[in-house]
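[scheduler] slot 2 assigned
[scheduler] job type: sequence-to-structure, two independent chains
[scheduler] chain ordering preserved from manifest
[runner] begin chain α
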Amino acid sequence: MKRFLGFVKKEFIHIFRDYRTLIILFGIPAVQILVFGFVVSTDIKDAGVAILDLSRDETTQKLTDKILSSGFFRKTGELLNYNDIDRIFKKGNTKAVIIFEKDLGSRLFREGTASVNIIADGSEPNVATLVSNYISAIISDFNREMNKTLLSSSPVVQPEVRMYFNPSLKSHFMFVPGVITLIMILICALMTSVTITREKEFGTMEVLLVSPLKPSQIILGKVAPYFLLSFINIITILILSWFVFGLPVRGSLILLLLETMLYIMMSLTLGILISTVSKTMQQAIFISAIGMMLPTILLSGFIFPIENMPKVYDYFSSILPPRYFIVIIKNIMIKGTGLQYVWKETLIIALMTLIFMALSIKKFSLRLQQ
């Protein structure tokens, strides 16, 4: 028994001496509970809403104040006419437009009933459903208050919900763009990082480093085949999404392909950068697959709205390239927007590509000097 206890004591000592084991035992569970606890949420917070008030009377002002003071919504614009609805939705920061019909207040008191139109952005079906349900609940609470005034038991303001871009609320309008974003960064980063790390493990990378080829030429030579294959892959995915799921490209197909090429290049250069800091293929696989998958799913806005997360997660997600490509692909594919609506995200991905490329070349140059 004494020998057994001594053996157990030795194992404890080994565990506490290895910081990597301690991170796995205590660090990862703590990080996961913090991430999942705050990110995986069905609550609405600071969702953008725009108001089209055709009545502009006391009743619509009270209802507007009640909606905006609830803490769930923030006002993103005051619309003048119906033509502004498409424009404000394409900007991307508005989840719903609330339309008050003309003479709502006078009709309410004259006929005892009136309607409020809620138009939600159906490109994100889950968020659209939540936003419309929250607004409808606030209107129902407003009805109860009005019922006391009018001594009526029937609802006085009736919400009418419609979905923009995705009237049927088909879930693949959300999942197809998100899956494209996830697949591309995982496959591109994983394949390039594993390929280069394998050559480092087998010793063939040293041959390349002492060859007449420059580090930039080595990187471009590694990237070129995977760039072409990934581009063929994305065309196949777009064709499948069109014929199988009925998801067409409403915007410019050429612009979408150019944006996709930029995203593929960024993902490939990220894979190159991962290979420069990985000593083994296992490390490269862990960083590329596991290290990129969870952040992309949870913090990129793929499934869970970023505005619902604490501010610290917003800052962290801002360094994730998938966050920006999801905005681009949804705007072009589903909303049919042009470059004027996605130029900021395009510029950010282009800058990331240049940064990853420069860091990769620098690290290769350092290995060459050594």
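[runner] end chain α
[runner] begin chain β
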Amino acid sequence: MPWTFLFVSLLGAALAWNTYHPRGGRYSAAPSFFLGWLTAELALHHIFWQALATVAFVYGGALSAWPGKLGLVLALGSWVALGLHYLRGFEARGVIERALDEALPGGYVERIAPKLRAELPEDIEWGPILRPFPIREPSVECTRNIVFARAAAQDLKLDVYRPRDGRGPGGADRCPVFFYIHGGGWVIGTKDTQGLPIVNHLASQGWFCVNVNYRLSPGATFPDHLVDLKRALHWVRTEGPAWGADPNFVAVAGGSAGGHLASLMALTQNDAEYQPGFEDTDTSVQAAVPIYGVYDFVEPGKTWGHDDLGPFLEKHVLKTTRDEDPKAFEKASPLHRIGPDAPPFFVVHGASDTLVPAPEAREFVRAFRERAMAPIAYAEIPGAQHAFELFPSVRSQITRSGIELFLAWAWSEHRTGSAV
């Protein structure tokens, strides 16, 4: 029993160590992400179950020999380390405030409609933190699996989340649209498991939220993914008003591959190449929030320390090589699609992301500031791994509140006709 307890304690210590020192190498990035993601955002739950296990070990005689006593010291140290790392989630508030203050016009908070500003959340909700699943809001009505198009003999579906009382933020008659795109490396993922904390929350605050599925590779070849998403936007613009949506304001967001596609949605507005059969539809968006996105296909992995992404894109996503068709990779790269008419962006990335390292986002933000007229805010969240916002943790909730503040500003600017 003492040796078993020591072994279990060593595992707990290794998990805690990984949250502070994630590994981003070719072979270590994925396991470091997965273990760090689950440990960091669910740290309170890890401490709880490890404490229960420790009580059981102690009751079973684990402290009868020195390995067990060493195991107890390691366990206690791991809990302190996890707790301190979890508290780092509060650092996100200062980072986000600085990002918005630096990017948006002076006095931007006062430019938000007064009723809307009064409704913006400030407090942490501890209930969802302690009981992270299921993710739902009683004030939200969810309609699932609405078929918005058909492509390659496949029904394309989206979910609608909207306030039950039908009122928009600040009591508006119609609800602005929040359009969320799931990630999964362009080959996996679904609307059923991603984006749920933010779409449920925003819908409870009066937003009309759509969570969209699209065709996945290797069956789909880029730009099929983007075309499908623009078809979903066509549905929002034509059918959304009957559901209470304001089709004149659409904010697009997504995580990882969804962040890549959300950026392209914002940077290829009304591009007929990606609107076959619905060329006349307005596919403009008024704001974009890519979260831990991928921005460069021309030099994939330039800031990653390895080039595993390049062969993957060539084989599974674009199905051509950079030598054969360099233009295809350029057109698929948000970094190379930035123009002066881009809408306002709020780029969010985890400082500890091992799957898509933060320098990828920094380079996109730098280029955007050089080429675009609209503001771009960049928040690099301390201690955050890839996919950190999929759990309703302290870090996730503070980040969500920052995104909501940015969207409230963008929508208020749109309603008053102010230039952004």
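[runner] end chain β
[qc] chain β: The mean pLDDT is 94.
[scheduler] slot 2 released
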